[in-house]
Amino acid sequence: MFCSRWIAASAPRRVFALGLLAAIAGFSGFAQAQQGTPIKLLVGFPAGAGSDAIARTLAEKLKDQLGAPVVVENRAGAGGQIAAQALKAAAPDGHTLFLSHDHSISILPQVVKNAGFNPATDFVPVAGFATFANVLAVSGGTPAKNLDEYLKWVRTQRGGKDTIGVPAPASIPEFLVKMIGTKYKIDVQSAPYRGSAPMTADMLGNQISAGIASVPDFIENHRAGKVRIVATIGSKRQALLPQVPTFTELGFANLEDLPYYGVFAPVGTPQPVIDRFGDALAKVLAMPDVKQKLTTMGLTIAYEPQGQFAGRVRSYTQTWEGIIKASGFTPQ
How confident is the model at residue 17 (pLDDT cuts 50, 70, 90)? Predict the structure, then answer.
């Protein structure tokens, strides 16, 4: 009698224990499989672009922290849409991650009818690591040294019309072009490119007179005097560009929130794997040489763990949802 009662009472505990042991064994096997297996870090823009340089800087150090090669894979095109779709299709095993800035995650799903992915249901934020500013730059083919001189040049030398390059269609830079045209009553059209690298090449060749992209995309050529950054987004001036006014100073509203950089994984990726990568990323960002290199590129380094970063993504997405709707833009 006592024996049968003990067996009945202990059965649920034994089932739980067996399940726990199986889970531990399963994760142990998963962790062993991770060791030495290459990790793909997807980037939605071509080699030579700012995102690519950032990814390669981090990948070089992450391999030592993770004990496995970290390979940057460029899936360029459609403003990061191709890379995002590749992440959705990837197995949630920690072998494929996506290093992305705000455009692919917060903007694309709002401006494309059938993006082929939904960040809220297909991806999970791993960690954030930086913010940056989008900026307006003019090419060396214009005499302008600031925004007022650029506007005067457009009105007097171009009949009030100009074309401004943007790294991707229906991107924040494209919405900034619309805002500039509306505020200053000039006819400026955006010229979408497949990333900032070909756009910058055309600026250096004076094929287009201006472009809007991130600080990392322009900073080296700005330092060399080949392009001139004349305005930035953000609530305060950039440390690397103390003489350049913000769009807020110039009278634009709702441009205080800075775009972000972060890493995303396919939904269903085990939490221990996400935590492990996040911890490794935090250690890499704390390295003085990495921090200096990324800061020199124009990033503001600020590691954000999963929960904090997820909150930033939600807030930023909501801000631009309002701006996009107010612009009257129709998803295409």
Answer: very low
